[in-house]
UniProtKB/TrEMBL annotation:
Residue ranges constituting the HTH arsR-type domain according to the UniProt record: 1-94
CDD domains: HTH_ARSR
Annotated protein name in UniProt: Transcriptional regulator, ArsR family
GO MF assignments: DNA-binding transcription factor activity
Listed InterPro entries: ArsR-like_HTH (IPR011991), HTH_ArsR_DNA-bd_dom (IPR001845), WH-like_DNA-bd_sf (IPR036388), WH_DNA-bd_sf (IPR036390)
Length: 106
């Protein structure tokens, strides 16, 4: 998968406010079950499980079985790749805007 492809999946997954909340909660807690996360959100456990599946498919979360429950944790690599991509786009626009400013001032 190209970095751009991963960025597309990450941005699509993070477009939903509930999924962004889940990323924040997992970032704070380090690891949690869907049940524990659902207790902190105004959505059902089943909804949390569906959102976590989207995050996992985008590579943002990893899961593992711990006894009878499945525990989820954040993966920072896809977020870092997305941040790099966004920073490169910002740098390009900064350069373009600087060129426009130079032309306008000359």
């Amino acid at each position: 998968m190209t970095e751009r492809g991963g960025v597309d999946e990450v941005l699509a997954a993070l477009a939903d406010p509930t999924r962004r909340q889940l990323v924040d909660l997992l970032g704070e807690r380090g690891e949690a079950s869907a049940t524990a996360l659902a207790a902190l959100l105004p959505v059902s456990r089943q909804a949390v499980v569906k959102h976590l599946a989207v995050l996992e498919n985008a590579g943002l979360v990893t899961s593992h079985r711990a006894g009878r429950e499945v525990r989820f944790a954040i993966r920072s690599e896809p977020l870092e790749a997305t941040a790099r991509w966004l920073a490169s786009r910002a740098a390009e626009w900064d350069s373009r805007l600087a060129a426009i400013k130079r032309r306008a001032e000359s």
